[in-house]
Amino acid sequence: MDQPEDTDALVRFENITYSYPYSDSRVLSDVNLKLEKGEFVLLAGPSGCGKSTLVRCFNRLVPEISGGKLSGRVIIRGKDLREEKVHKLALEVGMVFQNPETQLFSLKVEDDLAFGPENLGLPGKEILSRVEKSLKAIKLEKLKDHFIFTLSGGEKQRTAIGGNLAMEPEILVLDEPTSDLDPSGTREVLDLLRRLNAEKRITLILIEHKLDEVFELADRMLVMDEGKVILDGKPFDILCREEGKLKKLGIHPPQIIEISRLLGFNCRTSSPPYENILKRLAELLMPSTRELQPESRKEAKPKIPPALCPEESLSHVRIEKLSCRREDGSETLKNVNLDIKYGEFLALLGHNGAGKTTLAGHLMRFHKPSSGRILLNGKNISKYSTAQLSQQIGYLFQNPDSQIFMNSVFEEVRFGLKNLKIPEEEMKKRVNSALEMMELSVYRNRHPQALSRGQRQRLAVASILALEPDLLVLDEPTTGQDRGHIHKFLDKIRELNRLGKTVILISHDMELVAEYAERVIVMKQGEVLLDGPAAEVFLSPEELDAAGLIPPLPARLALDLRKQGFDVPGMLTVSELKSFLRAHNVEIRD
Ligand SMILES: Nc1ncnc2c1ncn2[C@@H]1O[C@H](COP(=O)(O)OP(=O)(O)OP(=O)(O)O)[C@@H](O)[C@H]1O
Ligand SMILES: Nc1ncnc2c1ncn2[C@@H]1O[C@H](COP(=O)(O)OP(=O)(O)OP(=O)(O)O)[C@@H](O)[C@H]1O
Q: Which residues does the record give as ATP 1 binding sites?
């Protein structure tokens, strides 16, 4: 980095074109970009469009580590990165990867946060101060001397963010940093990013599928498709003006934009504040007001598909007085009692570290309870091995890489079926249909590690669907996916549920839970805090708040309207809000 070039831009991408090794197809195609110092850039696009590949050019992980062929130049502060070394750039350009496990390599949380500053050669006092500040920012002070391998998914993600914050880089690239965080953790991290950007003028490049949370924070939005930047502008403008194009790419507008448009707001630069939306709704409902006709109320109720299983009332899973004490003495499950019927679609929610994965893991006997028992189809599972249980339970791990180990996409899906000793023809049929369902047929011969994160997640799901188990346990299956793929996948899961399969979905995505789950269980610090129909649970704001959860926007509006005396049902989705308004002859813009 000797001869600075004459330019104001902090980062310039000039005609960047890239192909991975052994592949002729261009993953990045003639990308030209300029980023100014202090910009907060949101990068969006469908799964597999090249977002992660693009951001890895910022510190030359592409092509130095990935291999492959890169043409064009990346210039940071006037200096051509082709003359730079990856390890040096890593100190200037912070990067929070999609999978936190790939960047946590110390034994304990605080050691991991100190690693970067130590490499910068900072004095001991400064290192300590930075570690303290980062711990506070990521709210992990209490876990500072915990071993990394004992952390929950979200706690690991916070640690990975903290490690980067401690380096105080000029440019920080974050590849879906909130994908495993609970809603209040997501808000905290995004708020922290906003502060870093505003106060320290750190340039931020954020890949994020949760647009509701970020579109008002970022100055600029880039949308990619098939290796190209196809839209570049103010997030609000793009989301409002390019809705058709975005929807085709599987990018859905945030609920607040959808609802404000329905209600006739004519916004130019930002969405109206929540209070204005509530006020407009109250005004619109006033004429038909507070006494609802029984018929219309019936129509507005959430449409929950009845499970078709004839044995509906029988317990598929019964969890009795289950407690789990870890080796370090901490109690991660406390007297959990649950009765899950055949054909239920339930969601398991809770703050990071609440015990969701630990509870789900007990179903597979990954952990042994310290007391209590679990009955599956009426039988105590303590008699079964994990291998036997996996023939009845399709279990999707939080991190897809924990369950992918074959050399090709096809073989990966086939692997589980081989263990079931199914005839070859039937096996092929099931593999092909699972790959097609997850839109992975074109990658059938590819090595799974040469897929994007979202594609690997879909591969893990395909492997489980091919087994056709009666009980599906899905631990955050939608991480890293665009809305289009998420809906296709969850529609399929709902179809299976209607055929009688029982579904347990662990998720931090309240909008999806509101749309798909019939029953919602909220956990807090190892205990069940709430358990009931989705509409009821989402209308319990105090308890949800205590568990770090934020109800979806339509549910919040319904609740506040009730407080004002309106007789409204527990609406959970934008389409329920629409039908409710129509039933009251309220004119809406669709
Ligand atoms: N090592 C590799 N070899 C060949 N192709 C690869 C490799 N890694 C990724 N790809 C392909 O490059 C394309 C872009 O991948 P990338 O990870 O950049 O996508 P993405 O937009 O970040 O996706 P996601 O949102 O799912 O993380 C994908 O089609 C993927 O299959
Ligand atoms: N091996 C272990 N030893 C000690 N504590 C552990 C161990 N594994 C997990 N824990 C702790 O148990 C608690 C529950 O973890 P779990 O993974 O079940 O949470 P979770 O609700 O699934 O969280 P997330 O939403 O972050 O994935 C966490 O605080 C975690 O730190």
A: 45-52
Average per-residue pLDDT for the chain: 89
| Per-residue model confidence (pLDDT) at position 105 | 82
Which amino acid type is present at position 428?
K
Mean pLDDT, to the nearest integer, of 283-298? 57
Element (H, E) at 290: none
In the β-sheet with 93-96, what is the strand arrangement from edge to edge?
93-96, 171-175, 203-207, 40-44, 220-225, 228-233
Q: Where are the beta strands (DSSP E) in 259-411?
A: 315-325, 331-341, 345-350, 371-376, 379-380, 393-396
Nearest CA to ligand 1 atom 16: 50
Cα distance between residue 408 and residue 421, in whole Å: 20
Cα-based distances in Å from 485 to 143, 454, 492, 504:
35, 9, 11, 19
Determine what percent of the chain is predicted with pLDDT higher than 90: 64
Q: Report the nearest-CA residue for atom 6 of ligand 2.
A: 150
How far is residue 127's CA from residue 50's CA, in Å, rounded to a whole number?
Answer: 35
pLDDT digits 0-9 by tens, 1-50? 444 454 578 999 999 999 999 888 999 999 999 999 999 999 999 999 99
Position 274 scores a pLDDT of 93
CA distances from 273 to 214, 570, 580 (A): 15, 22, 22
In contact, 144 and 109? CB cutoff 8 Å: yes
Q: Report H helices in 120-182.
A: 124-138, 153-165
Quick one: which of 205, 183, 285 has its CA closest to 557?
285
For ligand 2, pick from 142, 181, 332, 334 the residue to mutate: most ligand atoms within 8 Å of CB. 332
Contacts of residue 407, defined as CB under 8 A and 6 or more positions apart, other chains included, come to 447, 448
| pLDDT of 402 over the 50 cut | yes
> Looking at the DSSP assignment, which residues form a beta bridge with residue 345?
503
Nearest Cα residue to 306 out of 531, 533, 583: 533
Ligand positioned closest to the Cα atom of 250: 1
CB burial of residue 503 (10 Å; 0-12, 13-18, 19+): buried
- Mean predicted confidence (pLDDT) in 505-515: 95
Give the list of residues 6+ apart from residue 124 with CB closer than 8 angstroms, or none.
none
Closest ligand by atom to 506 CA:
2
Residue 381 contacts residue 369 (beta carbons within 8 Å)? no
In this predicted model, what pLDDT tens digit does every residue of 403-454 receive, in sequence order?
888 999 999 999 988 877 889 999 999 999 999 988 899 999 999 999 998 8
Residue whose CA is at the smallest distance from ligand 2 atom 17: 152
pLDDT digits (tens, 9 = 90+) for 40-99: 999 999 999 999 999 999 999 999 999 999 999 999 999 899 988 888 888 889 999 878
Q: Which residues are known binding-site members for ATP?
A: 45-52, 350-357
What does the pLDDT read at residue 168?
86
Spell out the domains of the chain, with CATH numbers in brackets. Answer: 11-253 (3.40.50.300), 261-302+554-583 (no CATH), 315-548 (3.40.50.300)
Asked if residue 51 has its Cβ within 6 Å of ligand 1, the reply is: yes
